[in-house]
Write a structure and sequence with these properties.
homotetramer, alpha/beta, four-stranded antiparallel beta sheet, about 25% helix, globular
């Protein structure tokens, strides 16, 4: 049975999705009637709960993907297609330590917190108080964040950690913080960056060339969906064409 | 200092990469001279070790990405761009349990073993003895696999586990094993599939429609690299255009 | 000066585009006031005409691209990115002869008529009366079509021409008309097809394999736009991800 | 029957392609034996000619696509996927006039010459004598070029034409020639550019913003091929990922 407070994904008969905390005192108002969260809890993951009008809702244990997509956003979030690749490139797994800036809405923070387990650590920096708060709340809401330290600080002043296993910068002018980044990571550690424009990528590449970095890569990841119809299988008409350029490098002695 | 037996990534002055176990008794023969692994161990991650001709080699702690790319392959492997996305969609993180078939060369098995930590579990099935062995060796070589159970079995006979958190099928005719899959996973659990041709995708979709599954998705992930030159930034001339279609669904009551 | 009756492209101060026939008796009602077509004619291509409120409108000679995009549509049209490639593959240029079915809204017919010049010929077939009429009107409106013969006929009965230089089928089940197509073209002539789903492509490929055809190719063309900002250059957020698969083959003896 | 001197496409039993002038005095040496061009002429387009070892070769009338792909190249050529789109955007068809620089190997020149017919005109500029010669030869070899004027000149000195219908610049620093371009075209005429790097695109966009131009667009065209197997249809493993960015604008009063 889902534990109270944890997020649960509720899917309507028409496929509409609600990511909600499992608070047995509450109800969900839907177009198909009122759904009692106590009924959801009783049904359990993978089962059906019914509204007061008898309409069936699927009760789903949200995957990391669902949690990331359900982040309340006030900023551009980082998408699952990029997050998965970032985790592999930075070696984010149980026990690792990683610095991230800025926190933004916390979609990457959430994924890192999920993957690092009890023995890993995320140090996330955010200058703007409203995003600092938003990131904390998004993690708490997802039942994650015990392995996260939040800093409401300007990274121009440097990072408080040393020797972390990896570092990710999702800020507008990452080339201004390369010295700070190089000092914070372990020798040879991987660094990642996300930037929307090619002009920023050029400027970052120049900065990386001038500093103690190696193995620089630039790439983008495109995701193309298909209409899942066995007899009329075809790509969807439109797709997201750009979320950002990913840049990776390693600290070098 | 890297612990003996663990893989270490050695990068030549020209950027050539060697993923090798750190066995202090051994040496690496390179075009730039002989590199003693004892010197590599002494240098440590992020530092430089020198060949007997004085040529510098970077000593790198391999990320999960490096480990996946370093898998010895006798089959088509699953690539990092797909692996990252699969992990998120299936909710593979510390403590989760997952079934995978077939093991193949073990690139996804390796990534799952990495992410699931000490408390998670991979049950990986492979019918062909040579791949069964190869997958085991690739995991052992990477210093992973303690949370993996290998089965040299035909999944037509069903899976030995029940109630696992997720399941991934990378086999030629996954539609033949949907009953077995549905029985092995927890209610509402996510399933993933990887297939090379559109004909197979159509056949799988028909199978999923006929069975206890919901939320079916089909997609592909494309990765486009850029030449990392600040003054002449441009996409690379050629790219990998197809590694496979990813299909996801959920078990439904 | 633009000749009366020809289409003219009028671009508002905000970039809104109107493709209209140059009828000096008429006016264009805009948000920025009334624009007299007599003033447009007097201004001439490349110049500015003013509304009665003094707002400037650019008077543009439409390119073939503009004409294709301006086709009044009741069907899915064929897009410029595909049209250009089709023209090259089929060798559509001054003096060539080509059969097309179905006419649809006439976007490809229009482009062929434009390229074939006075000595070339398009034979376009359309079964449905409403599209037969629509195609004629779209060509007439663009000042084209003198080299086009329209047939309101079912191609199951075969084509009335022989020995044409090329043939293009944009119909739902092209594999049913391959015999008719093979008889209508010159020996070795190129054929083209446009289909939305992979299932149709498979069926067509099977048909082509079974008939007198060679050099079969399947491809798709993707167009990705960028925001044209020199200091913040980046791909647009979304793009058209699928308009159709193009298939080409040659008749073989 | 193909006329002497015209290019003919010969396809071997294994699909190997030869684009050769139809000179009845000559022979083609192949792995399957000697093919007499006199036999090719006698067979005719769409038919089979046999080598002295009795091996069948298809005799194909080359399409514009085949001619473009057959251009002898000493430079990066412009590819059919871009050429088709350029033709539409610039309105290149029977009777139009267009300036192009540089000529390069002449693949775009060839396509323009093909499409413009007897009443159209290409003015092509090339500074380097070796490409100036190469372009002429490639056109002559294809049986085209009667509507082309070649200039072995530096476009920094301006263009000799005025009021042309369109202009295309495929040079390294097009932003240096925008004044010359604006003077050469008719009011409101379309201009096109092809550039490999994003830095060049940025610089060109800045130049276009500063000059008498409007309706600027930046885009790229990707072509993805499929293995044409009805039962195992799938994208090819690798693809061309970048040939260049296309930029279009209009002269503005």
């Amino acid at each position: 049975m889902p534990s109270p407070g944890r997020l649960v994904l509720l899917v309507s008969p028409k496929g509409k999705r609600y990511l909600r905390p499992l608070d047995p005192e509450r109800t969900l108002q839907t177009n198909e009637g009122i759904l009692k969260m106590s009924d959801v809890a009783e049904a359990g993951f993978g089962r059906i709960a019914y509204t007061h009008l008898g309409q069936p809702y699927q009760v789903i244990k949200p995957s990391l993907y669902d949690l990331v997509k359900g982040v309340k956003r006030q900023t551009q979030i980082i998408y699952p297609k990029e997050i998965g690749y970032i985790l592999l490139k930075l070696g984010i797994g149980p026990g690792a330590s990683v610095i991230e800036a800025g926190s933004g809405s916390g979609s990457l923070t959430l994924a890192m917190s999920f993957m690092l387990g009890e023995t890993g650590k995320v140090y996330t920096y955010e200058r703007r108080p409203e995003f600092f708060e938003l990131c904390r709340k998004n993690l708490e809401r997802a039942g994650l964040g015990r392995n996260v330290e939040h800093f409401n600080a300007d990274i121009a002043d440097g990072f408080l950690q040393e020797n972390v296993d990896a570092l990710f910068l999702d800020v507008r002018t990452p080339w201004e913080y390369l010295d700070q980044a190089a000092k914070a990571v372990a020798p040879g550690a991987p660094l990642g960056f996300l930037l929307p424009t090619v002009n920023q990528v050029s400027e970052l590449l120049a900065g990386l060339e001038a500093g103690p970095f190696a193995d620089t890569e630039v790439l983008e990841i495109l995701l193309r969906r298909y209409k899942p119809m066995p007899e009329r299988l075809r790509p969807e008409d439109r797709m997201v064409a750009h979320t950002g350029f990913l840049i990776f490098a390693r600290q070098r002695d």
